[in-house]
Amino acid sequence: MELWLARSPWLGIVLWIILYISDYYLTVYSARGFKEIGHFQFEGSFELTPQYQKDIDALKPVSRLHIILLVLYSLLILGIWYLFVYFLGLPWAYLLYLGMFLLLEVAVHLRHFRNIFLIREIRKNGGVDGQISYRKWFSYRVSAFELYLFFGLFLIVAALASSPFFLGGAIMCFGTGLKHNRLAKKAKSNPAQLVETKA
After folding, report:
1. Of 37, 41, 69, 110, which has fewest CB within 10 angstroms of its CB?
2. DSSP letter string over the chain?
3. What phi, psi does 182 have (nearest 5°)?
4. pLDDT class for 124, splitting at 50, 70, 90?
């Protein structure tokens, strides 16, 4: 698989585009779903990434920022392939960077699937009573913990398979976990208002 990814930039770019687009729309789906089932409150915003919070809170089907970053990151992946594979003959370095892009999205998608299951299960069978309120700092801390788990998983796979692709995913998950821990500390010292997600 990694040989295919390194042979040409296009497979990596296509996978990135699919994952990045589905990440946005699954986030919108989850935000809408939590509003509709009405049991959950999120401090400030359901979305964790600050630059996307306004678009997700508004449930925008198209985000200008998302499209811009989609194009820029796709061009960046293309540029990294040409630099490391075509010019320098270092496919492992390209795979390291590609793993950073793709495997972080894999970790995020598993979180989306959990949310979708939760929303559909509550709609169908109930099982949740009253209101559940998530402080922003708590949401960031949970996210950081989950990303550290993926860091450990990807690092083990990287070590067992001598895989620069999974090493890249491990590095990115660890770095993003650190970022979310910093955001948790910031949110805890500057609490926002709880936003009720009833429709």
Report:
1. 110
2. -HHHHHH-HHHHHHHHHHHHHHHHHHHHHHHHHHHHH--EEEES-S--SGGGHHHHHTT-SS-HHHHHHHHHHHHHHHHHHIIIIIIT--HHHHHHHHHHHHHHHHHHHHHHHHHHHHHHHHHHH----S-EEE-HHHHHHHHHHHHHHHHHHHHHHHHHHT-HHHHHHHHHHHHHHHHHHHHHHHHHHS---EEE---
3. -65, -40
4. very high
pTM more than 0.70: yes
The C-alpha atoms of residue 80 and residue 102 are separated, in whole angstroms, by 14
Whether the Cβ atoms of residue 164 and residue 93 lie closer than 8 Å to each other = yes
CA distance 93 to 113: 30
Reported as a single tens digit per residue, the pLDDT across 31-70 is 999 999 988 999 989 999 999 999 999 999 999 999 999 9
The pLDDT assigned to 3 comes to 86
Q: Which residue in the block uniquely carries the two structure tokens 């009405």? A: 38
